[in-house]
Amino acid sequence: MSGAGPRIALLGFSIECNRFAPTAARADFRVWLEGEAILADARSRAPGALGEMPGFVRAMDKAGAWQPRPVLLTMAEPNGPVEHPLFAEMMAIWRQGLEALRGQVDGIYCVLHGAGLTTELDDPEGALQALVREVLGQGVPLVCSYDLHANVSDGMVRDCDAFVGYRTNPHLDMRERGAESAGLLRRLMAGERFHRAFRRLPIVAPTVSQLTSEGPYAEVINLGQAQANALGPKKIANVSVMGGFAYGDTPFNGFAIIVTGPDKPACEALADELAKAAWERRARFVAKLTSLRESVERALTSEVPLCFADVADNPGGGGRGNTMYILEAFHKAGVQDAIFGIIHDPALAAEAHALGGGAKFTARFNRDAAKGFSKPFTAEARVEALSDGKVTGRRGIFANTAIELGPTAALRIGGIVVVVVSRRTQCADPAFLEHLGLDIGAAKVVVVKSRGHFRGGFDEFFSAQRIVEVDVPGLTSPVLDRFEWKKLPRPVLPLDPETRWTPR
Ligand SMILES: [Zn+2]
């Protein structure tokens, strides 16, 4: 190491890919940072990147001198598989950047999601990690962090020195995991060596069964943390319990446990204990949804305000953010005092902007996007509010993150105010609605297109008891037997009740 501290390569690739959704192109990558831009973003007040890189950079800055060697960081809202030529373009940039650093770095930090796909690859993260090893060799410590929805391949575990997964869902610990990665990389650079124990179970847990405030997933995560604390950092450096992302539909889908640490027998034993604990809870990894008919009834008659989640059209899982099932049913039933957030419809938002505030017109949803689950819907509307869609998240997964919703409009349709945006985004932050002057606390009914991250943003208004997960069709429906799986390992729970697994 030179006198100015360790030289650390920084790179990353983050997208969650739904095999059943349309492909992701360059315009879908809202974060594309090369070189110094990664650092400028990470050190800014409201970074565009999610929290891992800012958390890592700030922890490194705080711990003393270091020499960042930033390469390329790309991030996109969940979508379909990435168009392969685009991924190849990224790989070329990473390769060139890493080759320029050969023999000149002391450590590497790589921000990954873990549930990426390309139109040709099931495991782009594994490909990127293999590239890092190929160019920089086995001797330079590599720490990788992942979303807990990662579908963990053997290559992902092999080609790193420390595997760090989120522990919260909704994801509220991205900065902490970035900072933790910095600490682990410092230990590795100081000469420690870590083993990684890996177990994968034949359980593809529906997304709605993977909350970490309570329930089976929380119990396994908490057990892992308790045991890691009891054993101490000299034995266990990190415990990652990965719920996975069913809609990736890869041969390596499955509930995964990765225990990283200096003490191999302790890591292996803890991985076994956690795998057994997860398997014992297998019957509880199921979705419990409310039918649309019952949801309408509750929206009309509830004495207390309720939040209805369209978990099947979650842009945060590749949903298009524009299905009409709930809006149409609530409108037809005459639901009052409702806010509906948020619908992705650039043509409608543009029309509302052209007409101006107060205008009355016939809103035609999905005029350009009628495809699959996204059906047209028409209703008489009034333009209540308009914005440029530039929002800084205030709570939950997008807190302190700069988000661009694009031209945005609030449209009144009967008793419902619908927020229409031009960039497909999960409704996870109250600011997406509030910046238009909407009062969430005064609404009797709030509908969000989100699977679970809204819980971290809207918890100020709705306790878990006041949340209704609605069962409608969609690309992210937690009812897994509605999909035509091609690559999932079978048998697997909950699809195949006869699935067996025995501890080692
Ligand atoms: Zn996730």
UniProtKB/TrEMBL annotation:
<keyword id="KW-0378">Hydrolase</keyword>
<comment type="function">
    <text>Involved in peptidolytic degradation of cyclic heptapeptide hepatotoxin microcystin (MC).</text>
</comment>
<keyword id="KW-0479">Metal-binding</keyword>
<dbReference type="InterPro" id="IPR010799">
    <property type="entry name" value="MlrC_C"/>
</dbReference>
<dbReference type="Pfam" id="PF07171">
    <property type="entry name" value="MlrC_C"/>
</dbReference>
<dbReference type="Pfam" id="PF07364">
    <property type="entry name" value="DUF1485"/>
</dbReference>
<comment type="similarity">
    <text>Belongs to the peptidase M81 family.</text>
</comment>
<feature type="domain" description="Microcystin LR degradation protein MlrC C-terminal">
    <location>
        <begin position="309"/>
        <end position="487"/>
    </location>
</feature>
<keyword id="KW-0645">Protease</keyword>
<dbReference type="GO" id="GO:0008237">
    <property type="term" value="F:metallopeptidase activity"/>
</dbReference>
<dbReference type="GO" id="GO:0046872">
    <property type="term" value="F:metal ion binding"/>
</dbReference>
<dbReference type="InterPro" id="IPR015995">
    <property type="entry name" value="MlrC_N"/>
</dbReference>
<dbReference type="InterPro" id="IPR009197">
    <property type="entry name" value="MlrC"/>
</dbReference>
<protein>
    <recommendedName>
        <fullName>Microcystinase C</fullName>
    </recommendedName>
</protein>
<keyword id="KW-0482">Metalloprotease</keyword>
<feature type="domain" description="Microcystin LR degradation protein MlrC N-terminal">
    <location>
        <begin position="7"/>
        <end position="300"/>
    </location>
</feature>
<dbReference type="GO" id="GO:0006508">
    <property type="term" value="P:proteolysis"/>
</dbReference>
